[in-house]
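Researcher: Please translate sequence to structure tokens.
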Amino acid sequence: MIRLSVNLNKIALLRNARNTGVPDLLDFGRRVLESGAKGITVHPRPDARHIRWDDVFALSALMQAARPAVEFNIEGRPTPEFLERVLEVRPEQVTLVPDSAEVLTSDKGWDLTREERAFLRPLIEQLKAAGSRTCLFMDPDPAAVERVEDTGADGIEVYTGTFAAAFRRGDCTREFAACMAAATVAQRTGLIVNAGHDLNLRNLPSLIGMPGLREVSIGHELTVDALLMGFAAAIAAYRAVLEA
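Model: Translation complete:
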């Protein structure tokens, strides 16, 4: 069974458009727990445009009784502030992402040059020592995925944004093959395989056969579907695809 982790960033973004506290992020966190989803994902950014660090701590407390069956996944660039706060929360999973503070959304994985690998190794060791499974956000590039093992990471999250864009254009053969190849390399080297970015009810069925796929984290598209069908129904629809 492929696990669904619901990303709550867009709920927080909507809340931040007003100073009323509506929608209540913790209420939506409770709804995720009640829905049967297997995780909650957040990606706090330096500008706090959606999830804030006080949200991270509040969600961690909310989830306490459900963890580790329902996992907390914190994504982000491993700045000193990010690492300090993540080590305090000790989520089940940390996904390290290379994006800068200026990007609109994560759209590029680690290249894992020699310098990046040297930078990441001690950070990953620290996170793993604190009990957090550590994954790297990676482009669907088998050559780059080959270098993940050298960092000590537990797994990868395959960036599926290029696949989703090609799917919208109506010809995703090349991008689909790249995702499959990256997952195959990860599985062969003993890495966990997660996937995420722009996945939805239309393109997700194509990817559920990815070798070793353990989890997908979905936020933006699920939130859009929730506007049409309701939050609980949207989560149920995604679960139905993943658990079929």
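Researcher: Any highlights?
Model: Residues 27 and 62 are 10 Å apart (CA to CA).
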